[in-house]
Amino acid sequence: MAIPRRILFMSLALAILLGPQHSSASCFGKDAHFKTTDQPVITQPSKTEPTLVLVSWDKIIQRPECVDNYYVRVWPEGTDMAKGQKIKVSEKDPKSPKGKNVVTSKTVTIEPCVNTKFLIELEELDSITGKDLEKTGEQLFKSAAIPKISNLDQSRFQVTYFWDPVKKVVDLKQASVSFPKDMITFPSCLDYVQITGSQVASRTGPSLSRQNSNSPNRGRALEYLGGKPLYNPEISVGGASTLPGRISYSDVTRGSSGSVSRQSSSSSISSTGSTEPQFAYALPRPRGGATKKVGPIKATAPFLQPMISINIPVEDCTQYNFEVQFFSARKEIGKVQNLNLPPLADIPGYVPPPVTSVIAISFNTAGKPVYGVKTSSGVNAACLPAYFEAYDSYTQRLENEVGWQVERSSSVQSLVSSTKEELEKSQEELLKAQGCVCTSPHLELTTTDAKVLKKTEANQLGHYHFQGMHGGYPYFMKMAHDHAGPHSHAGHSHGSTGSAQTTQKPTVSAQTNEPMFLFYDTSKKQWRFAGDLGGNKNLFFATEEKSVAKCPGDPTAKGTWQAATGTFGRFKKNPNVNVACETNL
User: Fold this and answer.
1) 106 — pLDDT class (breaks 50, 70, 90)
2) Which end of the chain is less congested by CB atoms within 10 angstroms, N or C?
3) Three-class SS of 124-151
4) 323 pLDDT band (50/70/90 cuts)?
5) Which position has the higher pLDDT, 577 or 585?
6) What pLDDT does 21 receive?
7) Residue 200 burial (CB count, 10 A)
8) Backbone phi, psi, residue 425, to 5°
9) For residue 369, which of 360, 379, 382 has the smallest C-alpha distance?
């Protein structure tokens, strides 16, 4: 019994030494506790506020004075708890003894008409045993509400073909109608959403003898490499639209861009002389036959995602018109009609699979080719005409995109150059205000000293660009030339100040990834080059101390530069080291 008593005595002494901020006297040797069978109580305080529920656990917590924090976990049934809400509760209850206990109830927000799970976790911070965690059992609750529809905006409905996330193909046997659920108040309280549709009678293109097999606009992308006005592929004609440049490739392959781009108008076509896809129904279709009906297809709550998506079986890659109806309490409370599934060639979000993954070729015993369709591609035989038309449309959109991107790149580059020039003008004004004679933001560290050029420190030679202020003086950083262009401003003109100087190339490698700074050291009153701003890392070049030059490129700094080539690396004045004020770049 001696060892347990010793451990108990040491624990008691440690608790006394740590003080009340680490251990509570009333909780020493005790822990807060939930029974694993305990569950919190969930109530809906107001019928007019179905999104708010009160979670209480005051009846099931033992030793609440020992709890430092509670966590209320809230998540929809059938989903992962880790992806739900985790609400920390740490505020004190003024009605508890001495007002020190953490409150034991919390009002939380949920989605009405969704089976929602709740549990409580307690956290006790113990200076001896560490962090104690314990949780209750799960409680299930669903609040009630009546759904409402105020405005069903037809433009927010998207109709396209279904992207199969498992097979990684666009399934042309299924259409997908999707819309944001925020158009409905309490969408999960609906009885169901119903979709019906009817096939639009097929049109057929002109006879093959009259059909031009080549589009006059194909292969024009290279024309936009230069000399053309800014080309914008975001154009539409009829139901067709070019590929918007802002859509990522992953979005396009999933068809999430929607069926029709609404960001542009046909008026832009004439102004740009652009090329637009016009391939829908270019190939013949079978005639006759009654239009087919689909549905009703019903989707029931809960609707947990921001978008409600419903799949509908379709045939032959033909056009369909759909109607979406919303039902509550067995009555229709809203509907949207004339949602059109356009021709496959007119869906900019459709990226056709490669021809080699669609067409199968085999040979019979006579050696003649037999052509078939690989349905694993998502394309079936009845969809081949629509597939080939969509393939041509997709190629045309890519060509349009190439031209537009090239022109946009040229425009951006011009904007960057203009911005740099404006920035340099501002920098020159700042240097002038500091009293600099050399107001150029560009300086060049040079030397003709062969001994210096052989040293590794020769990699410090080169172009330095103004970066800002340090200790009340301008500082510069070594970087490659990126001057906005030749110009002349007050304070400097074309050409370098001082006498002409021929700079030899260093005989050692001048390439380095380490930064180099040119700055004024206020303690020594000298301009110096170093690898750390304000320090002396790799210090090799500097002016003499007590320099009177306002800026390192000023004439008063000329002839005062030194290099650390003296005995034991001491500074030695070197007339062959110079910092030139660059003004003709």
Assistant:
1) very high
2) N
3) EEECCCEEEEEECCCEEECCCCCCEECC
4) very high
5) 577
6) 43
7) 15
8) -60, -45
9) 360
Give the pairing of strands 331-341 and 69-76.
Answer: unpaired
Q: Which residues pair with residue 241 across a beta bridge?
A: 236
Coil, helix or strand at residue 293 = strand
Residues contacting residue 371 through CB under 8 Å, at least 6 positions apart? 359, 360, 361
pLDDT value at residue 23: 43
In the predicted structure, residue 224 carries a pLDDT above the cut 60 = no
pTM of the predicted protein model:
0.57
The widest CA-to-CA distance across the chain, in whole angstroms, is: 107
Q: pLDDT tens digit string along 465-489?
A: 999 999 999 999 998 865 544 444 4
Report the DSSP pairing between strands 442-447 and 462-470.
Answer: antiparallel
Bridge-based pairing state of the strands 184-185 and 148-149 = antiparallel
Can you read off the two tokens belonging to residue 404?
């537009």
| Number of neighbours of residue 69 by Cβ within 10 angstroms | 13
Q: Which two tokens stand for residue 19?
A: 């003080």
User: In this structure, how many other beta carbons lie within 10 angstroms of the beta carbon of residue 422?
Assistant: 11
Q: Which residues neighbour 567 within 8 Å (Cβ) at sequence distance 6 or greater?
A: none
Antiparallel, parallel or unpaired: β 561-563 and 572-573: antiparallel
Alpha-carbon distance 421 to 419, whole Å?
Answer: 5
| Half-sphere exposure of residue 276: CA atoms within 13 angstroms, side-chain side | 25
Q: Which amino acid is at 407?
A: E
- Say if residues 260 and 160 touch (Cβ distance below 8 Å): no
Q: How confident is the model at residue 115 (pLDDT cuts 50, 70, 90)?
A: very high
518 forms bridges with which residues in the sheet? 476, 529
SS3 letters across 536-571: CCCCCEEECCCCCCCCCCCHHHCCCEEECCCHHHCC
Question: Can you give the C-alpha Rg of the chain in angstroms?
Answer: 38
What's residue 220's pLDDT? 45
Chain segment 225-254, per-residue pLDDT in tens: 444 444 444 444 344 444 443 343 333 333
Instruction: Please give the Cα distance from 112 to 117 (Å, whole number).
Output: 13
pLDDT digits (tens, 9 = 90+) for 68-104: 999 999 999 999 999 999 999 999 988 888 888 999 9
Work out the angle at residue 53's Cα, subtended by the Cα atoms of residues 48 and 57, and round it to the nearest 5 degrees. 150
User: Is the distance from CB of 234 to CB of 245 less than 8 angstroms?
Assistant: yes
- Cis check: omega of the bond before 313, within 30 degrees of 0: no
